[in-house]
Amino acid sequence: MSITRRTFLKSGAMAVVGTAAIPSFLTRAAWGATEAGSNKRLVVIFQRGAADGLNIVVPHAERSYYAMRPSINIPRQQVIDLNGFFGLHPSLAPFKPLWDQRQLAIVNAAGSPDTTRSHFDAQDYMESGTPGVKITSDGWLNRTLQSESAGDSPFRAIALGTSLPRILAGKASAVAVSNVNGFGIAGGNPNAATLGNTFEVMYEQSVDTVLHGTGRETFEAVKMLKSADRNATRRQ
Amino acid sequence: MDRPHRKHRKKKVSHRPQMRWIVALSFLLFVTAGIYAAKKNNIAGATEQKRALHALDRLTFGPRPGDVQAVAAMGVDKWIQVELHPEKIDNAAMQARLAGYRTLEMSSREMLFEFPTNPVAKAAMDGKLPMPRDPYRRAIYGAAIDRVEQQQQQDAANVAAQSASTPSASAPNNQPAMQTADLTQRRQDRREAHTVANDLVLLPPDPRMHRILALPVAQQRDLTQGIPFEKRQALLAGLSPEQRETVLALNNPAAVINSEVQSAKLLRAVYSDRQLEEVLTDFWFNHFNIFIGKGADHYLITAYEHEIIRPRVLGKFKDLLVATAKSPAMLFYLDNWQSEGPDSEAARGVPAAGQNPGMNGPFGRRGVMYPAGRPPRSQQPQPSPQNNQQKRRSGLNENYARELMELHTLGVNGGYTQQDVTQVARVFTGWTIDEPGRGGGFVYKRRLHEPGAKTVLGHKIKDRGENEGMQVLEILAHHPSTARFVSTELAQRFVSDDPPQSLIDAMSKTFLKTDGDIRSVLQTMFRSPEFWAPEAYRARVKTPFEFVVSSLRATQAEISDPQPLLAMLNKMGMPLYGMQPPTGYSTKADVWVNSAALLDRMNFGLALATNRLAGTSFNLAQLLNSTLGTDTDPYQVQLKLERTLIAGDISKQTHQTIEERIVGPQAMSQFADPSHPTNVNVIAGLLLGSPEFQRK
Question: Considering CB atoms only, which of B390, B583, B606 is closest to A186?
Answer without folding.
Answer: B606
